[in-house]
Task: structure prediction
Amino acid sequence: MIADINRWQTGWVNYFRIGYPRKAFRAIHAYTVEKLTKHLKRRSQRPYRPPEGKSFYAHLHDLGLRRP
Result:
């Protein structure tokens, strides 16, 4: 799933690369992290929790999510 999302993000990065893309990249990444966190929390009756001492943000990056 993360590989598909990285490929999806790469497409949007190429689309927004013209001009001053920092705001667009930040918005794309924030949206992706938010949706993945929501998905993990509701995927079963017992919500998913990242390893102790890690945030969802850090855990998603450890799983391979790239930043645009």
Q: What stands out?
A: The chain has one domain: 2-62.
